[in-house]
Amino acid sequence: xxxxxRWVADQLEIRNLLARLSHLADAGDLDEYVxxxxxxxxxxxxxxxxxxxRALRGRADLLAGAHERRNAGLSGPGTFxxxxxxxxxxxxxxxxxxxxxxxxxxxxxTDGIQEAGGMGTYDDEFRRTPEGWRLARRVSGLG
Length: 143
Fold this sequence. Notes:
- The protein is an alpha+beta fold.
- Helices cover 31% and strands 43% of the residues.
- The protein has helices at residues 3-27, 30-35, 59-71; strands at 37-44, 56-57, 82-94, 97-108, 115-129, 132-142.
- Strands 2-1-6-5-4-3 form a six-stranded mixed beta sheet.
- Strand 5 and strand 6 (132-142) form a beta hairpin.
- The longest helix has 25 residues, at 3-27.
- It starts with a helix and ends with a strand.
- The mean pLDDT is 94.
């Protein structure tokens, strides 16, 4: 495939991955959610969240963290919350790696008059795997 077309296809796959992550975090299957990360994937939440959220490393830890957030009522089915990721800027960093910077918005009470629950940034690193593109590292910031 021509390298320009390959880059366009890679960008589309990564953008779909980001959308799917949000959909699954809000109301989907958590095993499928975790499968969108690399085996050694990590997520570093903003430092000043209330309640505090811990950094997660590896699929098992990412899955446990997702269950913790759902059990605490922070996200997931029945919480009427939604994650929105926007202004995604992708940069190829190698033949099988891409980084991105984007904004996240978190909305609550989506069953009525929505409220902004927060916003911030994601600095993500993606890696091409035999299964396709996967999120290798996410660093979340506030503001």
